[in-house]
């Protein structure tokens, strides 16, 4: 039985770093990725990265039929709120996997299985890469009916997923199921067994100090499937560069995102980078010296 399938829908033009994302997936051979998309396959390919080709309207039709709520009107960013329902909608693709989850594409992966071992994935219903919340950029669940249908336990889930507003159902709403308030004794008894450990994946947000109490490192390096940064040479799960490529979630005191100001985010050929390694920093993606 295969270990894990991660699902990440994407509609619209591929991000500039997509070939680097796929290269980092390629080195995690025990994990498969499934990407529903309306785009042709990128230049870089990997045997463990599979695509489901469909238009965005067709995707919304599928999800609407699978969960019984009309979602034809929702905008693309609302896809984040649909993540808790991906296990239900893509159940046919989960056959043969012990675990499934969702992730983002603005990520470069390290050696996932060196950290998320069989012991962890077998002993917990849900695993998050944050200590206080289910992470939208990577959350993993046991492949059971209970976890595939977890989204239906969100209060007023039908109304909330039909709203055009982004309501953080993949993060805050699921966290309230995993960690109910103290007064909800019955809910605490029924809560899935979860593991939430901070993996320090997302620099530039100004919110989480690193383990040594300092601000997040800016210089990260990927080579031969291993991810390091200027401060740590091992134990890094992934790099999530959300705060570098977008201003959407940045706090005012952290300033503007650096990547939109660059002439080019990607400053090297992905083929050379796959062979020789590359750095990821506020200055962009560059070939290692």
Describe, in plain words, how this protein is organized in 3D.
With 289 residues, the chain is of the alpha/beta class. It has one domain (2-287): Spore Coat Polysaccharide Biosynthesis Protein SpsA, Chain A (Alpha-Beta Complex). The chain is built from eleven helices and 13 strands. It has helices at residues 18-26, 56-67, 86-89, 112-115, 118-123, 145-148, 157-162, 169-178, 185-190, 242-245, 270-276, and strands at residues 2-7, 31-37, 49-53, 97-103, 107-109, 126-128, 138-142, 194-196, 220-223, 226-229, 238-240, 278-281, 284-287. The strands form three sheets. Strands 3-2-1-4-7-6-8 form a seven-stranded mixed sheet. Strands 10-9-12-13 form a four-stranded antiparallel sheet. β12 and β13 (284-287) form a beta hairpin. The termini are far apart.
Keywords:
seven-stranded mixed β-sheet; 13 strands; single chain; globular; 11 helices; Spore Coat Polysaccharide Biosynthesis Protein SpsA, Chain A; alpha/beta; 289 residues
- What is the CA–CA distance across the termini? 41 Å
What oligomeric state do these chains adopt? single chain
Percent of residues in beta strands: 15-25%
Biggest β-sheet: strands ordered side by side in the sheet: 3-2-1-4-7-6-8
Contiguous uncertain segments of 5+ residues = none
Main β-sheet, in a few words? 7 strands, mixed
Quick structural gist:
With 289 residues, this protein is of the alpha/beta class. 25% of the residues lie in helices and 20% in strands.
Task: Spell out the blueprint of helices and strands.
Blueprint lengths: L1 E6 L10 H9 L4 E7 L11 E5 L2 H12 L18 H4 L7 E7 L3 E3 L2 H4 L2 H6 L2 E3 L9 E5 L2 H4 L8 H6 L6 H10 L6 H6 L3 E3 L23 E4 L2 E4 L8 E3 L1 H4 L24 H7 L1 E4 L2 E4 L2
Parallel strand pairs: 1-2, 1-4, 2-3, 6-8
Antiparallel strand pairs: 4-7, 5-11, 6-7, 9-10, 9-12, 12-13
